[in-house]
Amino acid sequence: MIEADRARAVALFGDRVSRETWARLDRLVERVIERQTVMNLVAASTIPHIWTRHVADSLQLLDLAPAAKRWIDLGSGAGFPGLVIAAALGAKGEVHLVESNQKKARFLREAARELALPAIVHASRIEDLVADKPFDVVTARALAPLDKLLGYANPLLKKGMVGLFPKGQDVGAELTQAAKSWKLDAELIPSKTDPHGRIVVVRQAIKYK
């Protein structure tokens, strides 16, 4: 089943992802599945569809910021999308991954080192991170409802970065709730991997007083 799911991911992005990148992603998936037996990296029910549910879902973000070289991923968890973006960018880019769970941060560091990825892991809370370097994109996946997520990301968005936030079928309700607290310059892009999903592209978020 996993091989068939991998084939679907390749069909979606094979023409834009190098063979070397697919090889790195193969190793990343192997690492996630191996560690899943001892720590909860992703929902167990998603493992049979790990390629479309997690890898391809992460890769699609690259299409929305093709020129971006410096990314920061909040609440990186198992490395989706952070490590996937790093694998695709290779030496041309740099991805910072923020993960407060020490065990998950250790997994991210080990995976980045083993796969020789341009990834820097920050084992800290998002609120405690001082992002003094310039980034092009801030992203977060399955971290928090949009209203709360904007609070985490806004210090970065205020510096001119674009926010790319994959969301599921509740995106409409999340956007409505967020609009009560935030003035947004944002748009919804249909997901290529989830017919009910959308990617929220945020260019500016101003908190109402």
Brief digest:
With 209 residues, this protein is an alpha/beta fold. Helix content is 41%, strand content 21%. The chain has a single domain (57-207), classed as Rossmann fold (3-Layer(aba) Sandwich), CATH 3.40.50.150.
Task: Describe the 3D structure.
By secondary structure, the chain is an alpha/beta fold. It has a single domain (57-207), classed as 3-Layer(aba) Sandwich (Rossmann fold), CATH 3.40.50. It is 41% helix and 21% strand. It has seven helices and seven strands. It has helices spanning 2-13, 19-36, 50-64, 82-89, 102-114, 146-157, 171-178; strands at 70-74, 94-98, 119-122, 137-140, 162-167, 182-190, 198-207. It has a seven-stranded mixed beta sheet. α3 crosses α4. It starts with a helix and ends with a strand. The mean pLDDT is 93.
